[in-house]
Write a structure and sequence with these properties.
The chain is built from five helices and two strands. It has 129 residues and is mainly alpha-helical. Helix 3 links the parallel strand 1 and strand 2. Helix 2 crosses helix 3.
Amino acid sequence: MVRFGLTVVRHGETRYNKDKILQGQGVDEPLSATGFRQADAAGLFLSNVKFTHVFSSDLLRAKQTAAAILGKNRFCKDLEIKYDARLRERKYGVAEGKPLADLKAMAKDAGEQCPSFTPSGGETLDEVW
């Protein structure tokens, strides 16, 4: 029997996450000090996992998280990370770089609710899934 494992990790905190500002794909914010601590903690937790492949979004916050995790790994420190724009989070169009409250207000004005609301230039949930 073939054994397959998949580990999924979300990027560490950024300043925008903390301040509840939407990043989406258009804001390439780096990890905050807390985000680097979170990535290091994830790396310690996963330090004995023998990864065969590592994939990451090409956005800085995801790259920094993946690098920190591999940097703590006992077996895979030199494994190449494959960056792919298709792994980016949802695109929020005109709402990117704005507070989450603004997105909620846009949705309300449109008679919709988050997260099903799609701002102009954003991706629908169907496009993400």
